[in-house]
Please model this.
Amino acid sequence: MNLEQRITKQFEDSIAVKQQSTAILAPLIARAAHLMVDALLADGKILACGNGGSAADAQHFAAELVGRFERERPELRALALTTDTSILTAVGNDYSFSEIFSKQVNAFGVAGDVLLAISTSGNSANVLAAVHAAHEHGMRVVALTGKSGGLMNEALHEDDVHLCVPHERTARIQEVHLLCIHCLCDAIDFHLLGDD
Model:
């Protein structure tokens, strides 16, 4: 296999995983969007967290809501818990890395808010701690995972939404996560603004 064929296979694999995920994830994304819209309309907010590429996804999601996705609308209350380096390094140093998100959920989260928790494996200790903190504050959780959902699968409550990409490869899971995030943004705008 030459390089061009290898690249073509990456595209084909990505397309296949998205097609396999559609029937499973579409109704769950719609349910997650309803949760988020309900929170926003009740003057609540959405907190988002994840590590590495998932941290970038959390920031991407918050940016689309605070700014705009594809249409102009008022700013929406979303905050990525991955961006304040002083909080992240202070909590990581003084307590533990596993508390970098949960302490922020404890500080900013209130009943009725939503936590978007992103972990491709579902096993990230700091994301799991944030889920537990969210539940303690009466928040709902939308989890983006892959593989089997890992420990996140067990930590979620019945009224949470678990978007678990049915694949083992991290790169493919992350590609579907980005699509899910864009679907959530579009669905939120659809609920708030109607059809184009």
About this structure: The helical segments are 3-41, 53-66, 85-94, 102-108, 125-136, 150-155, 170-193.
